[in-house]
Design goal:
flat; about 80 residues; alpha+beta
Length: about 80
């Protein structure tokens, strides 16, 4: 896709990162009902091409694993 892709972090109320992800449309990636019900926020961290954001997501998961010895809760395998 040639559309702009967005790299995001899904964050809980305690400011813990639960997931690094990529999406073309951050406003519809998760419903507001889901975010509110689970007390989560989606924060856009970067934008770019599909391939750039895909590698960004991978790098963020690897860094998180290096720092905390595990992947974010919702990225159990790093993707």
């Amino acid at each position: 896709s040639t559309r702009t892709n967005y790299g995001y972090a899904l964050i809980d109320a305690n400011r813990n990162i639960l997931k690094f992800g990529e999406t073309i449309n951050p406003t519809t990636r998760y419903s507001q009902t889901y975010l509110s019900k689970n007390n989560l926020s989606l924060q856009i961290l970067v934008d770019g091409s599909k391939i750039d954001i895909h590698y960004w997501q991978h790098d963020m998961n690897m860094y998180y694993r290096f720092k905390y010895n595990s992947f974010p809760l919702l990225n159990k395998r790093g993707w």
